[in-house]
Amino acid sequence: MTSLDRILYVEDEPDIREIAKLALETVGGFTTMPCASGQEALEVVASFGPDLILLDVMMPDMDGPTTLKLLRKIPEIANKPVIFMTAKVQPQEVEAYREMGALDVIPKPFDPMTLSEQIRTIWQQHHEQ
Amino acid sequence: MSNNQNDIEAKLQKLRDAYASQLPAKLDTITTHWQSLCSDWRWETVDLLHHAVHSLAGSGGSFGFPQLGKQAREIEIALKGWIKEQHIPDHDQQQEIAHKIAALRKVAGNPSS
Hints:
heterodimer, A: alpha/beta, Rossmann fold, 5 helices, 19% strand, globular, B: mainly alpha, Four Helix Bundle (Hemerythrin (Met), subunit A), 4 helices, 0% strand, elongated
């Protein structure tokens, strides 16, 4: 199985970005690249070289689904696994995000102590398929 | 508890404290938007209010304020419906939101409730 180490995380809210960084780096042991917008993610994604992209759905200017579409146009990133994070987790919305190419959806608010474990579980399920 | 766990807890608590210290200003913003809407209903102000409560709804639980998050989510759902239908709430609906905003303030002073 491909190892999971580098996570690009896109979230417009500074406080959520901070606690997710703690959850992913200190609790989970991942190397992260936090980005404040979809635009910032597009600028740094190729040089960072993530194993996984974690995308907030509702962001001003460029939302998560739009960011995903643009990320997919970057050749090195075209097939990188993506997980959405959102408060809107109606079953039909989760299905719509999966159809866009997301592995899964993590509901917000998340528990900082278990976020990394949730991500590892989704990653393993994806690689077992 | 190991040193590593102590370190994580300490860092988490620092972030929770910073979040708690920012809550009064965030709640003031929500109240200001709501008061503005009660005297002059403008959809751009509804969008600002929606964004402010969405932010609390998505973050409260992560920072030890689960009730705040739930209360904010209820306001967000009402606003989202009104935005979708372009519906201006009647007096009773406005009263309900005013009560929910007042309740936000109560739970903001009571983390982990």
